[in-house]
Amino acid sequence: MNLIEKRFAPANRHEDWMFSVAWSIVLGFISGLACVGVRLFFRLLQWVLTQHGGLLPEAARALSPERRLLTPVLGALCATAVLFVARKWGTLHSNEYVEAVRHHDGRISLSATLWKTMSAAFSVATGAAVGREGSMIQFASAVTAWFGEEMPTRGFPLSRQVACGAAAAVAAAYQAPIAGIFFAAEIVLGEWSWMDLPHFVLPATAGWLVSRTLLGDGPLFPVHEAFTLSHDYGWALVLAVVLGLLGPLYHPLLRSFRFASRWPLALLWSGLLVGALSLLKPEVWGNGDVALASSLQGGSAFGTIATVLVLRLVATAFCVGSGTNGGVFTPTIFAGAAMGFLAGGLLHVSAPVLLAVVGMGAFLSAVTHAPLMASCMVAELTGQWHILPLLLLCDILAWQIARRITSDSLYAIATPEPADEHAATDAKLLGNPAYLTTEVSLQS
What we know:
The chain has 444 residues and is mostly helical. It contains 19 helices and no strands.
């Protein structure tokens, strides 16, 4: 036992638990700071490469058509160069945080994660159609794992410490502390007990406080309508059933362009596609946050939302298939909101935005198999806490339907026997979240 262990090792199980709770708070602040640090670095790099520090679609709209086409290509070239240097100087092999917690005792290579985060930074800052949150959460989890290994604590496994870091990172990335708690329980650990609750609540709160202090207050996608009980609630249940059926198709869709990873300079092709599609709709750039906000505010026409949805699905799937580092959490939320909004328009409901809000959670629940996380995430992102019972009902319904079609979610890499030989690619999705997560992009 080294000097640190002798000094800090508690004397009994009760003290072990109390010390682990206190240490989880420290990890929450560390993870939150790491997450916010990556976010600010992305923002700085975006300004350097585009001379615009605001939302990516707004930056794309301000650029000339030539620059809008070529900027994602430039970012892809820089991202490719980073990966090339990483392979020459070190390694890119690193466990994703879900895989690390489930099967590798929480061990994550900080150096490999740093290289991947640098690559993701160039892609994200120049408009790649992936989420930035995945890289933020992965990096924060890797930092948490490093601190956990440097400060060993008796009775508090490293895997549990990384789960605490992930809860704090989700809370910081989305200003959603309650969703962060259930993210750690439902997705990262896959199980939880009441004894785990303080280890998730406190670090998630710490991460949220860091983000709120340094980045500003939420909710990220406020919806100001006050939905009242009406027959639209019945259509919300029908929408949940439909999205529960569509959820299992999303996974193969995101892998449908994996052949692109075998092309020479694969990332450059994804950059060129994003640039070309953004000439049609600037909303193709980024994680879908602008398009999501527009659909939730009812500020876009039916045809515009439909077009952006199709273009973004193609762009995101191609970026994922080519190996672009980033998450798909926020893009997935946008897809659910867009389908809900379009359903509301087709059905001529009185409040199509209600179906957009329900669609966010139901589709997220169907593809992640995490209904509690999805419900709380939507409530925290939109501020629509008064319809939480409806969100829970719809998300559980969508999840039950999806899991009867397939037991695999976008986190299939975390299962003892991955669904197929492409499970390594799956790790680059939501949890990739980093390379769900994730930015599986929820500000995102």
